[in-house]
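Today's session is about reading a structure prediction critically. Students often jump straight to the picture, but the first step is always the sequence itself: look for stretches that repeat, for charged clusters, for runs of hydrophobic residues. Only then move on to the predicted structure, which in these notes is written as discrete structure tokens rather than atom positions. Here is the chain we will use throughout the hour.
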Amino acid sequence: MKNSEILELSTEELVARIGEERTNLTKLKFAHAVSAIENPTRITKVRKDIARLNTELTKRKAASASE
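Below is the predicted structure for this chain, in token form.
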């Protein structure tokens, strides 16, 4: 997910997307623990996407708190 896509999301969509991505990460980790997944770098990509989403959410909370 690109930063430009993240900026287009509303705050509610950000929170929902974080939940979806965390669920996806958990499923990927379990699948990888049971048997090796085809592309293990997907786990890293999902973790970074979650971090990007959380960063944008924190920026928005800080901006609304300072107003």
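Discussion point for the tutorial: The chain has three helices and no strands.
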